Amino acid sequence: MSRDIDVLVLGGAGVDTIVHVPELPLPYADSHMIRPGIETRAGQTGDFVALGLHELGLRTHHLDLLGDDPEGDLVRALHRDRGIPLTTVPQPAGTKRAVNLVGPDGRRLSLYDDTRSREADRFPERTLRELAGASRHAHVSITHPCAHTLPALREAGASLSTDLHNWDGENPYHEPFAYAADIVFVSTTALADPERTMRRVRQRGRAEVVVATAGAEGAYLLAGAGEELVHVPAVPPPAPVVDSNGAGDAFAAGFLFGRLTGEPLRRCALYGALAGAHACTVPSTRAEAISRAELVSRAAEWEKAYPA
Predict the structure, then answer these.
(1) Would you give the distance in Å from CA 308 to the centre of its chain?
(2) Model pTM score
């Protein structure tokens, strides 16, 4: 079978409205005057992962449900302008959208419109199997229709990854994703005991590696026969931090680039850290990812300055 797609990204397409606020949490007031203003742009988790992988030179294809609406047009334009193949399925409820409140330090609070999905949402079986059969790897967003793709993706023989984002380690919704994927990303933000959760994912699922991202503290890897928890230090951003939105998606893209090009785990994590650090320097109103040449160059400089 010909594998013409390096990574099939499922789900996570949508639009964010960016609102810069004077601080987070935002104090209650009748009104706030804000600058630099309010802007709407395409780019949610699946879009950012697809963009990151594409910029790193991997043959990437994105599959998701989109509405016939202005938000959907923004998502289609993003993919068209960047040259990322996109297969869409009609979503009568409309394209996913969110409002991001962004503070001066780059932290954010995201408000997701939960009306833009339906219990019956599914990807067409034929479309899913055709794309999965042509893919080396599939990165699965934790949206409702993606949960139903896991058996078909596994049958197609593609390796799988997923990002559980701010899972608390207890919510059962995330478990099918956590236990089906070969590579599992999760944020430590809501985890009471990150190591315990990582070990449980390894023991109950099929994950070869579990990666817990911890922001400025770096990341943690759990993999291999020895089951040793390895800390990967954070990488200083190359410019001032302006927004943390998309940093986790960039980390995942950088890590997957390393994994799919045969790099050792520590270098995969370094690629992820460098890509995530770069994302923090990109204003929230733009969709931009680190290039392959820049990532490899920065990694070589880092490894020269800090040899293992």
Answers:
(1) 28
(2) 0.93
